[in-house]
Amino acid sequence: MTKIMLVHPEISRGKYNFAGVIENEPLELEYISRMLKDNGFEVMIWDGQVEKEPLKAALESFSPDYFYVCGRTRQENFMKEYARLAKEICGGSIVTIAGGVHVQKCYERFYEPYIDYILTTFDIFKLLDIIRQAPREKNHGICYQNKDGKFVCNPPKPFDIKALPTPDREYFYSHPNNYRYLELAPCAHVRTAYCCPFRCAFCYRNSLNCGVYSRRKVDDVVREIAEINCENIYFIDDDFLWDREYIAEFIRLVREKGIRRKYVCYGRADFIAENPDIIKALGEIGFYYILTGLEATDDKRLARYRKKTTADVNIKAVEITREAGINIMGMFIVDLDFSPADFSKLYRFIKAHGIRHTAISIFTPEINSSLYKKFKNRLITDDPACWDYLHVVAKPYKMSVSLYYFFYHILVARLFLKGMREGIYDFIDYPFYLKSIFKNMFRFGGNKENEK
Ligand code: SF4
């Protein structure tokens, strides 16, 4: 029987890797696994976030015919290392394939002799075409090496998410102590859509799936949730809350079927502010976290980000979620033009509006996005591992890289201590994270590599 290994590398090899805090179910691999098993293939999933057995040993014992690896930008080095390892361990006859979100946007970075195919589409059925040796020419979304070793790339087409099978969650269920979102553990991922209908200036997610938003039917989503044997559900769509009618129908069906779960989802502040009745109903059916891109404290910056919200809308959204008994996770950007005062202002805004949960991202132009071209001359590193929104990848405007890191870590430490006082992170190892934050305050800042 043809054997296929599906691999998702670890996030980082450092200790500061969010293990035990946020661990994401490898949903993309589980969709592929179901499709392949339904077609009679033998499948093995290996997820570097949770595996104890090294990949080398897994390759030796499973001895796959095909090797598929996917990941985010920050995992690019690991993806390449693993594809190379697959060739070394299993010999030249193994077929290596790279796919996933990062590859879709940056496929040329994977033109490597040890990678045979690159998938630039969400269409997982293209893997079947590769395995069944369907014609490669003009096969949309498949890049391949021709007989001269040169890559030929067929552009992708938008994929209709409704064609996806129900994920094979065997791997998820066999790791009951992994896969969590903060204190919600274990936490299963559910996807209802690809792409995002909005066009925020700093974000590349809206260009995925050829920029075409594709959504599943709501009754199919509710059926899937009812079948998942897990108390916590994380909707990993870029924006779950954008269509009032869709969400109202979701609430109705969940109530009708008597489904009891805790939910996490992404949702925009303007939707929350305009639909307090829906948010209240979401709180009643179990919504626990709404992750909201509040991004900035002032209208000028929000307009520059083309966020289509204002600071007042953000504040209203915070109040409405609080009244509904839902935790808002306020996501903010610390921009490259921040002054020391801007870092303090952000902390004061968060404190003044009682935002208990926060996630702070350093402004990062995604590789190969239009922003990347704009910031090309300011880049201070080309290591994809730094594209994790925790590293400065482009030169700040108002201070040195060292000083920028210093103020960033002061902000992170203040928010962390605030969270500690409020008891929101009681499930994590406080001393370890505090030590890491204070160490980074000086280590990142003193890193000469960043001073280039
Ligand atoms: S920031 Fe959110 S709402 Fe804006 S384009 Fe990206 S995913 Fe969509």
Characterization of the model:
There is one protein chain. The chain has 452 residues and is an alpha/beta fold. The protein has two domains: 3-153, 3-Layer(aba) Sandwich (Rossmann fold), CATH 3.40.50.280; 161-451, tm_1862 like domain (pyruvate-formate lyase- activating enzyme, Alpha-Beta Horseshoe). The protein has 16 helices and 17 strands. The strands form four sheets. The protein has a seven-stranded mixed β-sheet, with helices on both faces. Strands 10-13-14-15-16-17 form a six-stranded parallel β-sheet. Strands 2-9 form a two-stranded antiparallel sheet. Strand 16, helix 13 and strand 17 (357-362) form a beta-alpha-beta unit. Helix 7 runs parallel beside helix 8 (244-256). The protein is globular. The model is unreliable at 446-452 (pLDDT under 50). The structure holds iron/sulfur cluster. The site of iron/sulfur cluster has 11 residues, from loops.
